[in-house]
């Protein structure tokens, strides 16, 4: 991939100001190279959707961006700050780079509001009344204001995932990472979570989304990133990718996906 220092990439939906710069990122587990020289720019307000077959490195890429996996080589730059240098305070970086996982990771002994307030109050040292107003505002926006006193065991899977999203958003991150957030949900609960993410995209939140929901990917993305075997094979606007992918590998992937969808109907 060519170096594109001044470009957010094809079909960039942001305002041109670069939020994230990734160069020659390499990550291996033992003898297996999971990320093989990934280079990518993300601009302010852009929504990137990363798709590809299982094991291609999608989730590992997000975990490297959030410091949950150390990289072997390469560089990650967040708004001009190189965050992959030795000595990086990843707890500080994670306040700027929010992440939502497949599993909700809510504390069962805390109610919804208690889970959401942990970061702003304990990590950011914000005053509780201010943080609580912010948290309740976000819960209202995702349709969960009436569940603020509920405990995780009293929530559906979709509700738990929405709480996890709010928990990340109350930290006021500069970019959000979503790792297959609907993978563990029943089909009827998927829609409510995707609707929240569509709303965030319309509000201009910078996001990188790993998903297997192809219709959602097409609807929400400014740019599709297709990965295979640890590399970016293709990137383009969503309509172009889904209607006429350039690579043979992407065409095979979409054909298999379409065949699987038809079998489920």
CATH fold annotation: Rossmann fold
CATH architecture: 3-Layer(aba) Sandwich
Quote the beta fraction.
15-25%
Shape: globular
Q: Which features characterize this protein?
A:
265 residues; alpha/beta; Rossmann fold; four-stranded antiparallel beta sheet; 38% helix; globular; disordered N terminus
SSE map:
Blueprint lengths: L17 E12 L2 E12 L3 E5 L6 H8 L7 E6 L2 E2 L7 H7 E4 L11 H12 L4 H14 L15 H13 L5 E5 L7 H16 L4 E4 L3 H7 L2 E6 L2 E6 L1 H6 L4 H17 L1
Parallel strand pairs: 3-8, 3-9, 6-7, 7-8
Antiparallel strand pairs: 1-2, 1-4, 4-5, 9-10
Describe the model.
This protein has 265 residues and is α/β, with parallel strands linked by helices. The protein has a single domain (18-264), classed as P-loop containing nucleotide triphosphate hydrolases (Rossmann fold), CATH 3.40.50. It has nine helices and ten strands. It has a six-stranded mixed beta sheet with strand order 6-7-8-3-9-10, sandwiched between helices. The chain has a four-stranded antiparallel beta sheet with strand order 2-1-4-5, with helices on one face. The radius of gyration is 18 Å and the shape is globular. The chain starts with 17 loop residues before the first strand and ends with a helix. Mean pLDDT is 90; it is low at 1-12.
């Amino acid at each position: 991939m060519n170096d594109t220092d001044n470009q957010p990439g094809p079909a960039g939906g942001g305002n041109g100001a670069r939020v994230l710069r990734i160069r020659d990122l390499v990550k291996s587990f033992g003898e297996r190279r999971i990320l093989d020289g990934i280079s990518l720019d993300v601009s302010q307000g852009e929504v990137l959707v990363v798709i590809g077959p299982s094991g291609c490195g999608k989730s590992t890429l997000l975990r490297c961006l959030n410091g949950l996996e150390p990289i072997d080589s390469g560089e990650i730059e967040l708004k001009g700050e190189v965050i992959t240098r030795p000595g990086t305070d990843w707890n500080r970086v994670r306040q700027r780079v929010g992440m939502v996982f497949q599993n909700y990771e809510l504390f069962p002994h805390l109610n919804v509001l208690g889970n959401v307030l942990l970061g702003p109050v304990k990590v950011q040292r914000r005053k509780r009344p201010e943080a609580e107003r912010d948290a309740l505002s976000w819960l209202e926006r995702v349709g969960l204001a009436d569940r603020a006193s509920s405990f995780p065991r009293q929530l559906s899977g979709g509700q738990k995932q929405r709480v996890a999203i709010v928990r990340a958003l109350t930290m006021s991150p500069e970019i959000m990472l979503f790792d297959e957030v609907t993978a563990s949900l029943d089909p009827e609960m998927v829609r409510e979570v995707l609707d929240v993410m569509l709303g965030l995209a319309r509000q201009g939140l910078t996001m990188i989304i790993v998903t297997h929901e192809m219709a959602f990917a097409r609807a929400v993305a400014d740019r599709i990133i297709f990965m295979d075997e640890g590399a970016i094979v293709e990137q383009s606007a969503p309509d172009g990718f889904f209607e006429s992918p350039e690579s043979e590998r992407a065409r095979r992937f979409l054909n298999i996906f379409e065949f699987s969808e038809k079998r489920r109907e």
